[in-house]
């Protein structure tokens, strides 16, 4: 809508996260839900464990879901014990230009593995370093969470968002980055280690789906969003998450000696992705 | 909504006799959703259920209707929620995200089925349509119009037309009506009216951008009909804008604060 002086004012509100597109009116063909399925594979040992369980699920006390390269690098460095076994994988497909190593073992690979800590098997880590479309996120979340006994779980979701998505009373260039914001479900009684995400900001995508699941099914969960102006993974963004190591549920699982090797991998990856290589 | 409506409080019921349901459609300028926000915020509706489904794309945020020390609290809101005010017999479905591509038809089918089974007395869809795409015959007409089902027309048609002076959108067959940019509004209205429901679709011709004014006007129109806010108390025929309570989530809608541009 144009004002008296003719300038076009954008309107933003928590009532929505987008404006209506004309193309949404076209009589689009119906797409079956099976087109957006994520596939989960458990290791034989864990599959057996799930089958043997009377409730047909995996015992879990802490679930940490890291979404995106910076969050996964943080969890690899500060939580994941080097000898923790991979117990599952969630597949959502790869794009033709995604570069992966043959063994799928490099930290920069587009993978989504589920780990459990070697010292505490009831701590499950889902490290998602691949692209999951918003349409796939429902299936991704239910595939993982439906196999967990979430009655007494503390869940944590870590992700990053570009600072340009952050709305505040300051102009975008005046907001010092990176910074953390938190959201929690009703069941989560603790206080997060950073300020709450202010209205009218919203988080979308896979991390939002996991939090929605936790709210709806009454799981105690906290989400930490790191707003950053860096397109690539950098040490500053990863280090921002360090503030949460003293809070629930990380204080129980943080490594005494961080595994700094993983940080080097990420920097290496960043170094080679320059414009004029 | 057959498996996708999950309770947020113990007050979720299956029989909604005597209740009016308002559905915010995803639409151009988000007039439907802005109106729903204004009603929920002003009339103190409580969240009673979540729509948790793969038909809607995920979104979470802090409480859009928070009051008081809003920085100190967190009450998670999700992509689509059902709100209720028991005293006013009013329920609102607020949609904050978009419908997954290629799933609009299924969403409408499920919504219609749930509405039909819930036995609402009235159903109101609030939406908007592209101003630049309206038919030639419509250009001189008013920007706010409505479509009404035959059953509701019998009971409320006279009041709307004569007392409130609303303008009905005229058409020969519902299948020929076109409301570009109105989202699920028209298919849902069309489906529900075939089942003899008391349903009305109110929309405004508008464009993208700041549509707060249209949301205020739409809420005033609905209040003129339903009388949720006590107009006699204010002694006015129309409720002043200030009496509606905009939610905290409408902050910074024009971006960051620019008021101090010319301070020394």
UniProtKB/TrEMBL annotation, chain A:
Alphabetically ordered keywords of this record: Chaperone
* Gene Ontology CC terms: endoplasmic reticulum
- Offer one example of a GO biological process linked to this entry: proteasome core complex assembly
- The reply to whether Chaperone figures as a keyword in the UniProt entry is yes
Pfam families per record: PAC1
Protein family: Belongs to the PSMG1 family.
Indicate what this protein is called per its UniProt record. Answer: Proteasome assembly chaperone 1
Q: Which organism is it from?
A: Dimorphilus gyrociliatus
- Organism classification: Eukaryota, Metazoa, Spiralia, Lophotrochozoa, Annelida
Automatic annotation (TrEMBL), chain B:
Its domain of life reads Eukaryota
Q: Name one GO cellular component term.
A: nucleus
* InterPro entries (alphabetical): Proteasome_assmbl_chaperone_2, Proteasome_assmbl_chp_2_euk, PSMG2_sf
Keywords for this protein:
Chaperone
- Give start-end of the signal peptide: none
Family as reported in the entry's similarity comment: Belongs to the PSMG2 family.
Q: Cross-referenced PANTHER family, in alphabetical order?
A: PROTEASOME ASSEMBLY CHAPERONE 2
Briefly state the protein's biological role.
Chaperone protein which promotes assembly of the 20S proteasome as part of a heterodimer with PSMG1.
Assembly behavior: Forms a heterodimer with PSMG1.
Name it.
Answer: Proteasome assembly chaperone 2
Organism (species): Dimorphilus gyrociliatus
Q: What is the lineage of its organism?
A: Eukaryota, Metazoa, Spiralia, Lophotrochozoa, Annelida
